């Protein structure tokens, strides 16, 4: 039997990225895109398919929507789970927090089910609208890059089989099957940037600016971004080295790089040292680098950047970690682990000025004072037990669990 474009797209994505016998997770909100995903996956003969819906508890209808997906799954013979999110602490952007929580909840669910691949319903129109919204914010290559058809994060490979299909194609596929979907009322709310972008696409059509064309441009941006990542990794290998959690960069080499690669290298180094999810703003970085022409040091993004002869050293800013604590067995400041003879109640903290004063051998470490003050140390009540980077190991070792290189993949 000839497969239609929707089934074909799913098939192609699975052949490209998912082993033939692996179970497949589906993130199904009940909207047209993910309902098409559900129907197409249910029609395949192959390994088991499991669907999941996140009820963010933010709209009264959300519970009914999850029920609608569950009922449809029952009819199609697909196992279904609803996950509830109650985690918003009221801080930050609600949409962003909900989105992150959704991915986290789905990833945990997938791990619990032994599922390594989860498909999402994003389509070509989403891609084009995102590009327009990012253009409005003056985004560069990274921001204008298309979503990847397959991407690893949170221990899951996320698949987006429908990036080459339009929203209308997916709805037509559902109509053919008499399958309903939920129309999100916010899709008509012109206060949302995405809805404005959708309307703008209609206006742009006479100029020949189409979702297809914009999606193609976004794909080229993604390819350019990948090339920039390679160049940045090469620059990092040549010019930068990790030194016990700090990054040391050759200043002359950095100055000889193109602005774009220098910025990317510094972004990655700052984000690695500060375990920050996002890099600092480009303007803030430019101001800081200009200040460092005359000033010996500057702070940015929770990091201290200091000139040491012909090198720049990026280290954690002591003030940024002064109040951070973690149990001895846990990660500290997002990237440090302390291994040693722990007893219950032992705590990891930044060494601090006072702690450094208890480490007479610190100069032998060769690390600057500021790096050591921000370095991890073990405390038992008020007593310093170990400060491995400051020459007071006492049977303990400090190790960084991430790498600068891994940070230089901007997506
Ligand atoms: N509540 C939900 N439960 C399960 N899956 C969901 C839910 N919301 C969205 N998804 C999945 O994510 C896909 C994209 O949805 P949507 O465009 O609303 O996400 P978004 O908030 O824009 O996030 P992104 O930044 O990933 O695009 C859907 O097609 C579906 O596969």
Task: Give me the secondary-structure category.
Answer: alpha+beta
Q: Sum up the overall morphology in one term.
A: globular
Main CATH class of the domain at 5-209: Alpha Beta
Characterize the quaternary organization of these chains.
Answer: single chain
> Count the helices. How many?
15
Say what the CATH topology of the domain at 5-209 is: Rossmann fold
Low-confidence region ranges: none
| Proportion of helical residues | 40-55%
Largest sheet, spatial ordering of strands? 3-2-1-4-6-5
Please report the distance between the alpha carbons of the first and last residues: 38 Å
Which architecture name of the domain at 5-209 does CATH use? 3-Layer(aba) Sandwich
Give the overall average pLDDT. Answer: 94
Radius of gyration: 25 Å
Unique bound compounds: adenosine-5'-triphosphate
Main sheet record: 6 strands, mixed
Superfamily (CATH H level) name of the domain at 5-209: HUPs
DSSP summary, beta strand count: 17
Percent in strands: 15-25%
Protein name: tRNA(Ile)-lysidine synthase
GO molecular function: ATP binding; tRNA(Ile)-lysidine synthase activity
Domain tRNA(Ile)-lysidine/2-thiocytidine synthase N-terminal: 26-199
InterPro entries: Rossmann-like_a/b/a_fold, TilS/TtcA_N, tRNA_Ile_lys_synt, tRNA_Ile_lys_synt_N
Please provide a brief summary of the model.
With 411 residues, the chain is of the alpha+beta class. It has helices at 5-17, 32-43, 62-76, 94-113, 124-136, 167-176, 193-204, 211-239, 251-256, 259-273, 282-291, 318-321, 352-357, 369-373, 404-407; strands at residues 24-27, 49-55, 79-84, 117-119, 150-153, 156-159, 240-243, 246-250, 297-300, 303-308, 311-316, 325-327, 336-339, 347-350, 376-380, 383-386, 397-400.
């Amino acid at each position: 039997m000839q497969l239609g474009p929707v089934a074909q797209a799913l098939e192609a994505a699975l052949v490209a990225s998912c082993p033939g016998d692996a179970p497949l997770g589906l993130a199904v909100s009940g909207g047209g895109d993910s309902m098409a995903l559900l129907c197409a996956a249910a029609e395949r003969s192959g390994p088991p398919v499991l669907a999941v819906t996140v009820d963010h508890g933010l709209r009264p209808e959300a519970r009914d929507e999850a029920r609608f997906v569950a009922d449809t799954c029952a009819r199609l013979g697909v196992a279904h789970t609803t996950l509830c999110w109650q985690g918003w602490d009221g801080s930050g952007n609600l949409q962003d927090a909900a989105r992150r929580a959704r991915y986290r909840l789905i990833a945990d669910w997938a791990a619990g089910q032994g599922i390594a691949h989860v498909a999402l319903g994003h389509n070509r129109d989403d891609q084009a609208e995102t590009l327009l919204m990012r253009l409005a914010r003056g985004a560069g290559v990274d921001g204008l890059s298309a979503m990847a058809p397959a991407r690893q994060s949170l221990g899951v490979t996320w698949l987006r089989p429908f990036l080459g299909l339009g929203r209308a194609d997916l709805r037509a596929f559902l109509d053919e099957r008499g399958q309903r979907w939920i129309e999100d009322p916010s899709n008509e709310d012109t206060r949302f940037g995405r809805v404005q972008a959708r309307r703008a696409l209609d206006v742009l059509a006479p100029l020949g600016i189409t979702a297809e064309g914009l999606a193609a441009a976004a794909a080229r941006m993604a390819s350019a971004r990948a090339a920039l990542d390679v160049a940045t990794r090469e620059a990092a290998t040549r010019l930068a080295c990790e030194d016990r959690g700090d990054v040391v960069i050759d200043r002359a080499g950095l100055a000889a790089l193109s602005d774009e690669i220098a910025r990317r290298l510094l972004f990655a180094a700052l984000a690695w040292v500060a375990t920050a999810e996002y890099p600092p703003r480009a303007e803030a970085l430019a101001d800081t680098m200009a200040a460092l022409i005359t000033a010996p040091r500057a702070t940015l993004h929770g990091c201290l950047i200091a000139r040491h002869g012909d090198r720049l050293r990026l280290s954690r800013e002591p003030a940024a970690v002064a109040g951070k604590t973690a149990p001895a067995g846990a990660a500290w400041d997002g990237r440090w682990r302390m291994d040693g003879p722990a007893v219950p109640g032992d705590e990891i903290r930044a060494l601090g000025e006072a702690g450094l004063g208890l480490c007479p051998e610190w100069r032998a470490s060769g690390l600057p004072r500021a790096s050591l003050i921000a370095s991890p140390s073990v405390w038992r009540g008020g007593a310093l037990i170990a400060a491995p980077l400051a020459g007071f190991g006492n049977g303990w070792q400090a190790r960084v669990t991430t790498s600068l290189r891994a940070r230089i993949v901007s997506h």
